[in-house]
Amino acid sequence: MEKNRSLSFPCRTRLRILAAWPLVLLALGFLLLPLSLSRAAPQTNGESFLVREVTIKGGISPAQSDLLSDALRAAVDDGAALLVVRLDTPGGTVQAMRDMVMTILNAPLPVAVHVAPAGARATSAGVFLVAASHVAVMHPQSTIGAATPVKMDGEDVDQTMAAKIMNDILSFVRSVAQSRGRNVDWYERAVREAESITAQEAALLKVVDFLAEDTLDLLEQTGSRGIPFAGQTIKFSPSDARVEIHEPGFRHSVLSWLLDPQIAYLLLLGGMAGLFFELTSPGAVFPGVLGGLCLLLGLYAMSVLPTNVAGLVLLLFGVVLFLLEVHVTSYGLLSVAGVVSLFVGSTILFRAGEGAQVDQMTVIVTVAGVSALLGLAVWLTAKAHHEKPVGGLEGMVGARGVVQRWSGNRGSILVHGELWSAVSADNLEYSAGDVVRVIRAESLTLEVMLEAHTDSGHGPVN
User: What positions does the domain NfeD-like C-terminal occupy (predicted)?
Assistant: First the structure.
């Protein structure tokens, strides 16, 4: 009994030790967690301080948002410690701006926004990107401001929507500027009063952190100042900095072109016009194929851009009115209504206050050109419908033919290069070479009358 008890004691000890291992591993994991998190932060003490730089130029659109995300992803994959965004933008869509601001705010490494080169601007949506950055820098010859939401025609947003849009944008820019410790009052004025200032004024008002002429200048000043990130200040030696340029790929180039509101609008109207020509002239193929492709690309762009559904419906309705003009006698009223529908649809195609704009002159010229082409197609189609047939049996009436063979009051004649059976309508016997005119066509036989004859006589058929 004692022997068995002594044998069982080591077994119980082993079981206790084995049961304790999960607790030991769990405690070890908690101890190593801060170390792993510190390793996940951007490296600053290595041999080189890797910096990735991306240029965002032009209107802020989903394509630019996609480019920023790609650059940030590449920077993380390469182990970069800083992402520098060279910015030059007149503004853009509100949703794309919000997406880019959220990308910067939630970035796993610091993001510096540099309004550069000389003559660059950060207006409208660009103001929010500067406010959201960990390091805000401007070229001495650059400007920032004018962030008030506008409509397509440049006028202030309609009164019914002004308060809602303004309060939303103000609260957004206020929260972003406060989170970075920047001049909240000025950022509010940039939205409320469309205030715009120079780079020197921006530095004095603490709208941005400092001025720098290029990326090397930016890194020299940033290295000594430090980068506020994740509750700590990252400092580095500028001599250790290594800059890699992030080149946008083919996909970004296509998206940037396609998601331009001007291009999207032209693709949409061009696609509708192409399908209209195919419907009015079946068999042409090329207008239908090209129009279908343009329409699909335009609709894709509209699904991404802030599009007003009513504007799309009015554009489609305008084309339908031109189609009805072909079949309904309206003395041009349907065409006039179609032009009005196209113009109004183009004007309200993009939602007010969302940043997507089409120049008013572009709308006028495009609607006028498309309406002229559609009107020409309607006129040609209607003319073809009302003309007498020029082919088949009905098209033979009035045509001239030459007698080839004749016997009694029947024979064969050559009309339009084809041999036809014919009967005499004037009950005369014709001779080969006589010229006759078709006065009636029935089945596959033509009824003809003599128009010019040869020297041989023509007597009545007995």
Answer: 394-448
Distance of CA 110 to the CA centre of its chain: 30
* Residue 118 domain-assigned (yes or no): yes
242 and 303 housed in the same domain: no
Mean pLDDT confidence for 165-176: 92
At 137, which helix (H) or strand (E)?
Answer: strand 135-138
Residues 233 and 112 in one domain: yes
Residues 218 and 328 in one domain: no
Q: How confident is the model at residue 298 (pLDDT cuts 50, 70, 90)?
A: very high
Same domain assignment for residues 62 and 124 = yes
Question: How many domains are contained in the chain?
Answer: 4
Q: What pLDDT was estimated at residue 21?
A: 43
Residue 382: which domain range? 260-386
> Domain for residue 25, yes or no?
yes
| Residue 426: both structure tokens together | 């004037």
For the chain, percent of residues with pLDDT exceeding 90 = 52
Q: What is the CATH number of the domain that holds 447?
A: 2.40.50.140
Confidence category of residue 36, pLDDT binned at 50, 70, 90: very low
- 205 and 323 inside one domain: no
pTM reported for the whole predicted model: 0.66
Residue 368 has pLDDT above 50, yes or no: yes
* Cβ proximity of 422 and 436 under 8 Å: yes
Say how far apart CA 86 and CA 105 lie, in whole Å.
17
Strand runs labelled E in 381-428? 400-407, 410-415, 418-424
Q: How many helices (H) and strands (E) in the chain? A: 14, 16
- How many of the other CB atoms lie within 10 Å of CB of 31? 9
For 425, the token pair is 């309508």
Mean pLDDT of the chain: 83
Same domain, 49 and 135: yes
